[in-house]
Structures are given as C-alpha cells and as structure tokens.
Amino acid sequence: MLRAVNVGRRRVAMPALRELLGDAGFEDVQTYVQSGNVVLRSQDPAPAVAERCRALISERFGFDVPVVSRTEAELAAVLEHDPFAAIATDPKRYWVSFLDSELPQEAHERLEALTRGEEKFEVRGREIYGWFPDFTARSKLATALAAPAKNLVATARNWTTVGVLHTMTQNGS
Fold this sequence. Notes:
Blueprint: H1 14-23, E1 27-32, E2 37-41, H2 46-61, H3 72-81, E3 94-99, H4 105-114, E4 120-124, E5 127-131, H5 140-145, E6 154-158, H6 159-171
Antiparallel strand pairs: 1-2, 3-5, 3-6, 4-5
C-alpha cells in the first residue's frame, strides 16, 4: 500500500506501476483504484517487498513514496479481528491504518486525546482500526491515523478497500 500517492504532484499511473513491478520480477501484479493499492506475489518477506517497491518507484517516478506491505495471511487476520463489526454501519467511515512498526505508547495517548464523540479506535499490532460515525473529514483522529507518530510509516484504507485487497490476494483478480 503506497502512502499519499496521486495527490498533488506525486502522480503514479497504475498501468505504469503494474508494468514497473512486473518488469522487476514481481508476479501477478494488480492494482485497485488510483490510490496506490497493489497486490502482487513474491517469495520475499513483506518488509523487503515494501522496501524494493519504494526504491523502484523512487527511481522510476522521481519521488519517494512510503510503502507498507502485508501478506495474504496478515490481511486475513485484519479482517477477522474486526473490533467494530457491531457498530460500524458505513465501511467508508471504518478505517484501518497500516503501520510499518508498532505504535509507541506516547502516540497511542495522543490519539486518545484526539478522540471525540462516538469515534473509536483500537490498536492491534501494526494496525489501528478507526470508526468515525460523524465523517472522517471533520475528525482530528482520522487525520492523525494517516501519520500517528514520527519516524513511522502509516497509510490508511477504508474497510471496503481492505476487503477488496484481501479478495484480490485470494483469487488473483
């Protein structure tokens, strides 16, 4: 998952991205929407895949794009955990922020201080689940989930996108 791609001048055409990664030896490269969601196959560990993709994108497109990766099993575990299943009625307001490492305690406390009204979040490993019933555009917590701590790469996806990405890992489409 690419962070902050296709916003401002950081434009990456998904066909060009698929071609780049396929030419680099990744298999079954697929993208979903224009916001930097990539599913591919590799024998390398997920962190190595993320770093290689980041380097390839930087070299080809001329700017740094942080990348966070998860395996098929890790995506399945994210969906299975689903802490807000009983209350999340709109998948566009239910997010998962994927981190490259676990959230430090002081960042967790900062997120707690930003929570308002019926908003909820839960940290589990390298994911932060967030429920925003009153729209994400007005939420300081939602904004913070995209960058919850310094020196930590994070990128958020809504619940629908997480499900689609997992489905893509299952059937290659």
